[in-house]
Design a protein that fits this description.
The protein contains 9 helices and 6 strands. It is α+β, with helices and mostly antiparallel strands. Mean pLDDT is 83; it is low at 13-21 and 256-271. The chain has one domain: Up-down Bundle (Outer membrane efflux proteins (OEP)).
Amino acid sequence: MPPRALRTAFLATLSALAGACATDPAPIAAPTLGIGTSDTYVAALADAPRPGPEDLFWWRRFDDPALAEWVERALVGSPDIAIARERVIQAQALLDGARARRSPVIGAQLRSALGSRGAGSRGSDPRASLALDWDTDLWGGLRQAQRSAAAGVLRSTHLEQASRLAIAGITARAVVEWREALADLAALADALALQNDVLAVARVRVEAGLSPRLDVERAQAEVAAVEAEIARAGIRSQQARTALQVLAGERPHAGANPPAGGGVAGSGEPATAVPALRGALPVGRPADLLRLRPDLRAAEEDLVAASAEVGVARAELLPRLGLQGTIGLASDSGILDLVTASIAALLDVALFDGGERRAGIDAAESRAREAGQVYRQTLLQALEQIESALVAAQGTEGEIEALERGIAAAHAAVAQARSLYSAGLSGLLDVLDARRTALAQHRQLLRARGDAARQAIAVFEAMGLIGESG
């Protein structure tokens, strides 16, 4: 048989032997807790709609343009997302390296030396050589390393999506906090105007000798208390706006570019209502989590990578078969001639390593079992997050309805108490009491509406709804 045909047959035999001897680890199934396609959430309403494509961009479903604007600015400019994107690039580079390690390595060397050739003459001695080194991957260790690296790329991609989902949720909640603080400022501004009216009436009655001086002092104390609340609400507004700018990757500055709107007295901010979700809150099924939650999908790829690493560790325990070859060229007359050519098989066997390789297998198998438990933990946490968010969202709806009924009665009580006090038919304490009750209920309603928006955001987050990056 010609030498070339012999080498071809030899390589084919090695490849077949490598495939037959590969020690692939058994795949580890992700622990899905027995979730089926017909399962539903305990706290889900029977008539809740299923999520649609528009819910992947759920921030556009709120009635506040600023919320959608800020979320999309953060998705473009957030450093966290940029960091996650760079980690995808790094994981891809690791995969390229793992794929390259399965290919032959060919090196070249050129040498030219000056020396004497007798009778005082000098000449050069040019030489060239090519070297081949190829790990045949007899037991599939390099292939498993490539499989682990490929899972790492997918994991990094899913973690980038998880980062985008987290930034969208944090930004949306910051907008809700900002709008809530602005609405609180508006409510407090109205309360301050009313309290100043009460103070003016108290002064008139005191000057007329119809009320004690104590009424003026009480009214002044109430004005000061409302002014202090306005200062606190202003701080919350500024802090929330600064947080939004940082989330969008921007340096904090005075102009926040909010949509045009009416102003709040003394704040320079637009006065808008707390964001509310348009339409019903969609609810998926537990089985949807397995394909939608990016952190869960990342945990699944972690499991794949850990399983592949078991194969890598097992291959380290077995002999390594490599092919090495060289071709040497030399020239005495300016023409390169073949001088040497060789090809050899190298079998590398570890006879004794003190148990290091066996310990590596044990560690890899333990990491694979750990990855399975991490997946299970991630799934349990996802289920708990959705159940809690659904319960909170439904409870907040009832709270808002009750507060809206109470506020109408509280405002009527304030008007009546003020009229009676002006007519001298009741004391100032009745007016202050009614005003405090009305203001407290109004602020409680603002918080409840903010909680409703936050719970809706939490449901979208827990379900893993996030559109792909552009």
